[in-house]
Amino acid sequence: MADCEWRELAKLAVARGIHLQPGQRVCIQSPVEYSSFVHLLAEEAYQQGAQEVCVRWEEQTLSRMRSRWAPEDRLATGSPWSAGELTEIAREGGCLITVRAPYQYPEGDIPPARAALAQKTERMITQEALTLRMSGHCTWTIVLLPTVGWARKVYPQCTDEQAMERLTQTLFQCSRVEPGHTLENWREHRAHLEQYANYLTGRSFRALRYWNQQGTDLTVGLADGHRWCGGGVYKADGLPFIPNIPTEELGTAPRRDSANGTVVTTMPFLFEETLIEGMRLVFRDGVVVEYHADRGEDALRRLLETDAGGQSRRLGEVALVPISSPIAQTHTLFYNTLLDENASCHLALGNGYPFCLQGGEALSPEDMDRAGLNTGSLLHVDFMIGSPDLSVDGQNADGSWSPVFRNGTWAFSL
Amino acid sequence: MADCEWRELAKLAVARGIHLQPGQRVCIQSPVEYSSFVHLLAEEAYQQGAQEVCVRWEEQTLSRMRSRWAPEDRLATGSPWSAGELTEIAREGGCLITVRAPYQYPEGDIPPARAALAQKTERMITQEALTLRMSGHCTWTIVLLPTVGWARKVYPQCTDEQAMERLTQTLFQCSRVEPGHTLENWREHRAHLEQYANYLTGRSFRALRYWNQQGTDLTVGLADGHRWCGGGVYKADGLPFIPNIPTEELGTAPRRDSANGTVVTTMPFLFEETLIEGMRLVFRDGVVVEYHADRGEDALRRLLETDAGGQSRRLGEVALVPISSPIAQTHTLFYNTLLDENASCHLALGNGYPFCLQGGEALSPEDMDRAGLNTGSLLHVDFMIGSPDLSVDGQNADGSWSPVFRNGTWAFSL
C-alpha cells in the first residue's frame, strides 16, 4: 500500500512536477539515505522518456565534517564540479528534482559562522542553476520526504513509529496522492487554482494592503504587468509545471521598492537550520529598516545581510492562501516552509520570480528591473503572516481599494 | 571489536595507503551503501591533516538504469562532471581512495555490449586521473569491503552470516589489521618485501622465463632500467605509498614487444563483471596472437580489443608471489583479483607502471617508450599464472639464466 503511494508520488513529481518531455535530461538532488525513493523517481523518468537521469547526492555527515574541519578558504571556495551537471541540465532546459528530508539529522555542532559560510558557498555554486530555475528556463520540483526527526517535531506526543506513519499519511493526503487518481486529482486542483489566478491577474491591482490584530499593517505595490500563479507556474516555452508539491498558494511579484509598514510572522520558519520565531519587520520604500525576532535574531540578521546589494532586505513574493486550505485545516505546524506556506498567507525576502510577470520568461534583465522585480539575490525565503483575522485589500487603477481577503479567506467568490 | 578493526583499517588506508601529508585534499570513490566506512576514512583523513575530503559516490542501481535505458550516444558521452573533482585532486598531487565492494549486486540484465560501452565511457572519463595515478603524480589506494554476495561466492557452504564473518576476519588478517599494531605490522612487512625488491632490481635481469605443467612456457623481456616494487610504490616526489591493501607481490615492468610463448591461467579473473576462466594466450614479439578461454571468451575478446592501438594485447606487468604468501596459505579462491593476485604469480595486460622504471616518475613519454613500457591503454588487467610447480629463471646480462623461482617459491634466500 505505502509502496504504491510512494510510486504514485514519484509519478506525480515526474509527470506534473517537472512535466517531463521525452528526450529531456533530469537531475535529482537527494540525500544518499533516500536512494530507494530516487530509484522510483528515476524509473518513472525513464519510463516517461527521459534521456538520462543524473543524481547530485548529498551526504550530511561528510558536509558537516567539512564545515567543521576544512580551512576557511576551502569552505569559501567549495567544489564547483559538484554542481556541474545540475547547471548543465538547467542550461539545456532540462528538469530538476530536489528531494528534501527535513530534520533528518539532529542539530550539528558546527560554529554558526562556518555553517553559514558553507551554505553561502553552496548557494554561489548553484546560483546559475537557481537563476535558470527562477526564470523558467528549466522545470523543477521539490519533493518532501518524512523523517523521524521531523515527524517527532510535528507530533511530539507520538512514538517514533506513530509519528512517521501520521506524517507520511498527511503528506500523501496534502499532496492529493490517491493510487490511480493522483494525476486526475491534480488536473482538477490546478484548474481550481488557475481560476483564482486568472481572476486576480485580470484585476491588475496596483498594490495590496494587509492588516490584522497580530500587528501586521503593510502596503506593498505589485510589479508592473504582474501575473498571479496558482497550482503551478510556466516554463519559458509555456509548459506548465509544479515547483512545490503540495501547493495551495496564489502568488505574484511585488515591486521591490514599494513595501511600507510592518509585518509580523504568525508561524516560525527556518533559515540555515535555525528557527526564526516571532519576527517583526518594518519596511520603508521596499527596504527592511527595522527587524526583530523573539528567537533566531542572529540568523535573521545573516539572512538580511546575505546580499551585498541589499536584495535580501527586499520582498520578492506575495502569496495568498485561505484558511480553508487543506493544509491549514490539518491545524498542524509543520516547521517546514514548503508545507506551512501552503497553510498561510506569506511573503518572501529575496528574489522575485520572472514567471510572475506576464511574458516574464522572455523579458530582459532591464525589463524585469523596470517592472520592479527584485533580482540578483542569493535567497528566496518565505515567511508566514496569515491569520484567521487577516484582511487584504487590493488597490485599483483609480486608487480606490477593493476587499480581497476578509477573516483569513477570499472576500469574493468565483 | 569489529568497529575497532574497521577504524584501524581506515587509519591504515590513510596513513600508509595514501600516506596523507597535511594540507592535501583527498578524493574517495565509494558505493553509497558504504557511507559509514567512508565516514571513518574521512575522519581519519581530517585528523591526519587533510584540507578537504570529497567523495565521488557510486550508485549501482542508477548506473544500471542508465546502461539499460539511456540512448547509446548518451552512454558513449557520459558525464565528465562526475570525475571533475577526482581529476582535479589527482592533478594537484592529492590522494585518491577507492572503496570496492565486490559482488555487491547480483548480475544485472544489461545487454553486454551496452554494459561494455558504459564501462569504456567511465574509463575515458577517468583516464586523466588514471594516468596521473599510474605515473605516481598522486598517491592512491584501494580498500576492499566484504559483501554478502562476495562472501557466499568464496564460502558457498556457509550461511550468509557465517560467510560474512569469515570473509571479514580473513580480510583483516590478510591486511595485517591488529588494533594498536597495524602500522608497525606494515613497517615490518614493507621492509621485508623491499629487501626482495632491492635484490631483484640489483640483478638487472634482461628477461624472465616461466614454465610449469599447466602449459605455461613464456619468455618476457624486462623494460630497460626497470625497478622492482614490493610492499608499495613511490610517488613522483619519492613518498612511499601502498596502492593495494593487502599486498604480497614483487612486480616490475616488462618490455611491451618482448613476450614470446604461451601462458595459461591458474585462477579465474573478472573483466567487466564476467569471469574469465581457463585462459590461454600465445604471444609473439609482445602481442597476443592466439587466445582461448574455457569460460568468458567473449569478454576476453573485448578485453583484447579495447585499445585501438593494440596496447591491451600486450603485457604491462610481471609479478612474483611465492606460494608461502599468507593469502596463498588461506588456500582460498577469492574471485577477486586484488586478493588472488597476492596469492599467485601474475601478469597484466595493458598499461605498465612508470614507477617500475628507475626515476620513472620524471621520465618523458618518449623515455618510457624507449624503455619498452606499454603505455596509453585504457586498461590494466591482472591474471594469475602461479602454481606449486612454477619455475622462473632470470636472464643475466651475459645471456646466461639464473633460477629465480622453483616449486612456486623463491629459488634463493636473502
From TrEMBL, chains A, B:
Entry keyword annotation includes Electron transport: no
Cofactor: Zn(2+); Mg(2+); Co(2+)
Superkingdom of source: Bacteria
GO MF annotations in UniProt: aminopeptidase activity; metal ion binding; metallopeptidase activity
A Pfam family annotated for this UniProt entry: Peptidase_M29
GO biological process: proteolysis
Record keywords, A-Z: Aminopeptidase, Hydrolase, Metal-binding, Metalloprotease, Protease
Cited SUPFAM superfamilies: Thermophilic metalloprotease-like
Matching PANTHER family: AMINOPEPTIDASE (PTHR34448), AMINOPEPTIDASE AMPS (PTHR34448:SF3)
Family that this chain belongs to: Belongs to the peptidase M29 family.
Protein name from the UniProt record: Aminopeptidase
